[in-house]
Structures are given as C-alpha cells and as structure tokens.
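Now read the record:
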Amino acid sequence: MKLVNRTRYSASIPRRLLKERVYLLPLYYLARLSDLAKEGMEYSGSYRFADHIYANRASGRWALGTLVDKALLSLPACRSFRNRYLHSRDRIVEYVRTAARNQFRILSAPCGLPRDLIEAAGRLRREDPRRFEQTWFYGLDIDPSAVEEARRMTSSYGFTNFEFICGDALDADAYPPDLDVVTSSGFAEFLEDAELARFYTVCHAALREGGMLVSSATVRNRLSDYMLKNLAELFTHYRDETALTRVFSSTPFRKIEMRRDPAGYQILIAAGSGRMG
C-alpha cells in the first residue's frame, strides 16, 4: 500500500539534525511538545495532521506544548491551509442548495477525516432538511485506519447517509458512479504533474454531466516549507495558477475557476464537468 504523504526518510530526525543542522535541535524538541508538530514529525502529512489544522483546537504536552501548538496554528500557512477545507465545505452546500436535481452524491478522495463533508452535512441537516435527505456522502481512502476512523467520526454525529470505501484515489474503478461533487484537498501536493493530471481525469470520469471537482493547491510559504522539510521531512509540490493551468490542460476539464484564499497560500479550485450545476 502506497501512502504518498509519507515522505520521511530518516530513521531518526534528531540524529540527522545533529549531523547537518545542530542549531535546529532545540526547536525540534520544543516543537514536539505540540500535538500538531509531533504528528507531522512522526507521520508526515497524515490525515490527523491535516484535521488538527482544520479543527483549530490547540493541544500538546503540558501547558507549554499547548501554547506552541496555538502559535503554530496561528501561522499564515496554517490559516491558509484551514481555508481549503472551508472552501470545500461551502462549495458542497452551495451546489446541493442550488442545483436542479432531486438526488446528490458527494465524494471526498482521499477523504482522511472528511471534516468538509461532515460540516456540509451538518449545515444541510439544520438549514435545508429536504436537500439533506436527498444527499449521500462518500469517502474514499487507501489507508484502512483513516477509513475506520472516518466511520467512527461520522457515526458520532448521527449521520446514516455516509459510506466509506477503502481504495486508491488514482483507481477509477474504486469510485462510485454518477457523482455530483468530488472534493480533494491536500492530495495534489504529493503528486507529480502527470500524476495530478491523471487524478483529475479520473475525477472527471466519475462526475455526471454538470458535476464539479472542488480542489486546492498550495503556494510556497518560505517559513512553513523550511520547517516542514527540516523538522518533519515533509516534502510537497507547490503550484501557482500558471502551473495548475498547465496541469488542467491535460485533463478533460475546461471550465475551471481558481482564486487565492485570503491568506494567500492556497489556490481554491472549482472545475466543472460540462455545465456546472
């Protein structure tokens, strides 16, 4: 099983820092008091690492660890990172509320802990119960641990209209058919351009006419990139609008919307399969 987000290569990051950048050792041990940094250091860009940022609840070892965690969550790169799941949540709600359809099928791939789907479902259940009852949510992930934890998470909210699939997001056969919306945040950063174009093509094939892909891409933040590479060995691909346009040119998508989030380090994407909505 290939987890593309697991980019760590050293058996011991402290030993590597001792040889290469000893001045970073105090920062490494201080950062490890934070639950966010510890997760990133031990498991690269794991689904728990991403959800910790999305949830925006500081925690750590002792009071100092919680303070470090809070400081990390307040960094511009983390604030921007959080905006990508909010973008996904809001586009799902907007689509379901406005599309002229009687049933909706929404997929997150890879889903990790699908906070975007859960919060979208919660808003629809409160604000538009009829549309909520017409909507089915799917999560697809290659990691069985993520799938099982996502099942428990959705069950805790009392949802019965969720289904989870253990499968590869690059495998077209793993997708349910005739989807209205496919969301994907944080996967593009671990794919080369050709792999990303292939992934978006798979998403396009799974969408029905008028469906929508909701995705994002990360723009390089020098401080965040330096910390991720040196303290967590987390290596990602950064892309601007020009690079994304080049990737999409190799896919069937032709109606593509891109905008920067308010913090400026995420490009928020909505791409239509035919006429959106």
Observations:
- The first helix runs from residue 13 to 20.
- The domain at 81-273 is CATH 3.40.50.150 (Rossmann fold).
